[in-house]
Amino acid sequence: MTADDDIFLMIDRNSPYLSWTDLLGQEATVTIVSVSGGTVEDPKSRKKTRKAIVTLKGWEKPLAVNITNAKVIFSITGTSKAKALVGHRITIYPDMTIKNPRTGEMGAIRVRPTKPTGAGIPQSALLGKKTETVPPREAGEEG
Predict the structure, then answer these.
(1) How far is CA 72 from CA 17, 75, 90, in A?
(2) CB–CB of 127/58 below 8 Å?
(3) Confidence tier at 53 by pLDDT (50, 70, 90)
(4) Which of 77, 92, 113, 119 could be bridged to 133 by S-S, CB 3.0 to 4.6 A?
(5) pLDDT by residue (tens digit) across 3-15?
(6) What gap in Å lies between CA 72 and CA 74, rounded to an integer?
(7) Residue partners of 101: CB distance under 8 A and separation at least 6
(8) pTM for this entry
């Protein structure tokens, strides 16, 4: 896949955090590497909000997790503790039904409310590059 043949690759995705456009219209099962607190600034309003910043194995940008996605992550992992989330897999997808009430822009990343069964994939897999998969986490396995 190249910028010449994919509309999502033609868009400047300059956010420091993972955005729905970075998913190239696809869902992806990802593995959590780390979780920390951080402040995210809205580029238009300049409003700063606290988010959980989740680093994902094989992905260039971290995911800034809002309260909705945090609740889903808790419901499928059974924990809200940062260290305990390491190694868990979640499935993220672009949801075009979400409208930002402040900006009116459509689109957001959501977390599927079910435990993934497949292996985690690095971002390069969405781009059609050769990748290694992340094996599924076994039940009860520590991160």
Answers:
(1) 19, 5, 9
(2) no
(3) very high
(4) 119
(5) 455 555 545 557 7
(6) 5
(7) none
(8) 0.76
